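Our preliminary data section would be incomplete without showing what the modeling component actually yields. Below, a chain of 101 amino acids is followed by its predicted structure, encoded as tokens that our downstream tools consume directly.
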Amino acid sequence: MAHTVSGRLPPDLLRELDSLGKRAGKTRSEILRDVVRRGVAAERLERALEAYRHRQVSLGRASELAGLPVTVFIEELRRAGILRDYHADELRSDLEWAGQA
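Predicted structure:
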């Protein structure tokens, strides 16, 4: 169930939202929901990347925080220029798995 939220936007931002909505064939409410949804996803990803960069969370936990599968999160790490922690025990486990495949 959707909830109504009110807020104040400067006129230039409101014009930009209306312009985006018009080009996309969407109402102001629809385009605003799309923009907020993408903004929330971007914020979750940024926070997860920072937590991983500062070694506050594991790779799995960071991917959960971002709301992404681990494989997609690893690609986001690459895009952000963040090196992945890859320990010897992970390598050993991966080599064992590869030997069974």
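The chain has five helices and no strands. Residues 49 and 77 are 7 Å apart (CA to CA). Preliminary results of this kind motivate Aim 1 of the renewal.
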